[in-house]
Amino acid sequence: RTVLRSMAAAPAAAFTFGLPGIARAAEFDLKYGHNLPVTHPLHIRAQEAADRVAKESNGRVRIQIFPNNQLGGDTDMLAQVRSGGITMFTPSALVIATLVPVAAISAVGFAFANYDQVWGAMDGKVGSFVRAAIAKANLFTFEKVWDNGFRQMTTSGKPIETAADMSGLKIRVPVSPLSISMFKGLGASPASLQFSEVYSSLQTRIVDAQENPLPIIQVAKLYEVQKSCALTNHIWDGYWFIFNGRTWRGLPADLQTIIHTAFNEAGTKQREDIKALNDTVVADLKSKGLAFNSPAPDTFRAKLRDAGFYTEWKGRFGEEAWSLLEGSVGKLA
Ligand code: X2X
Cβ(231)–Cβ(296) under 8 Å? Predict the structure, then answer.
């Protein structure tokens, strides 16, 4: 990991000038880091976009992908994309909120009822509002948010049927103030850990539970270290595709267009991939031994309301962001 990290920080390798048969370093050598295994649609579609960019730019742009936390966890990659050590990163809305707090507006508990509401908000006013906030942190963001999915809860202990079952539950959540606040509100004992630590922390029982969308539970093999899954859909989570601001502005306009188009179109396809996966993933995870139940959301919502979760976060996000969200999903608090 240390070796990879210093390689990623190193300047573009030596150029060779037109010698036949010898690969020339690209004019723009870009590095993209993310936190998922290479079998996840986010990686597969990003690799397609990178290949397309190489082709359409006639080799002027090379995008090298460092998957699976090879360059460090989310917190490290967020620091690197800001400094320019890497060029691109896909933090979840929960995670980029450590830098741009309002980005977590789309992750408010039980806000979205379905994908029509999600994409209506994210391709509409909520998405624009968050993009403008991210731009103020000197990061460029592609329009299309990529799909992580609706988050579900898994545990190695007894199944979670109602909010009461979460009392004192040691559950891993991402490094995100909203997640901590929400799971405390639900009566659990949440611990913030980067995704790179999740499998081992479940395996060694540092925590008993975690929450993630089903495709991640599948590709990261979390079913190997968890027994049951409650289909709670408690948070919809997306990945923002962010770009170091200085590097973005340094790209010629024609290359910006090529990259921009490739990644937005790949994002649209990635959303379709997750949608298709959602139709088959439960059966697959059942066959791997994970038990499922589908709790009604009422006890969870009531507990959050009683804990003051919605009132608190309305205050933290501010009237404007909150009313944009409610414009898409209806009254929340
Ligand atoms: O860390 C997680 O749980 C993950 C993979 O869903 C995020 O990137 C927030």
Answer: no
Judge if the beta carbon of residue 210 lies within 6 A of ligand 1: no
DSSP 8-class letter at 92 = B
ipTM of the complex: 0.98
> Using one digit for the tens of pLDDT, what is the confidence trace for 84-134?
999 999 999 999 999 999 999 999 999 999 999 999 999 999 999 999 999
Q: For ligand 1, what atom is nearest to the CA of residue 211?
A: 3
Q: Which has the closest alpha carbon to 92: 108, 74, 79, 109? A: 74
Would the CB of 154 count as within 6 Å of ligand 1?
no
Pick the residue whose CA is nearest to atom 7 on ligand 1. Answer: 92
* Reported pTM: 0.93
Give the C-alpha separation, 181 to 312, whole Å: 9
- The tens digit of pLDDT for each residue in 274-297 reads 999 999 999 999 999 999 999 999
Residue 66 Cβ contacting ligand 1 at under 6 Å = no
Nearest CA to ligand 1 atom 1: 195
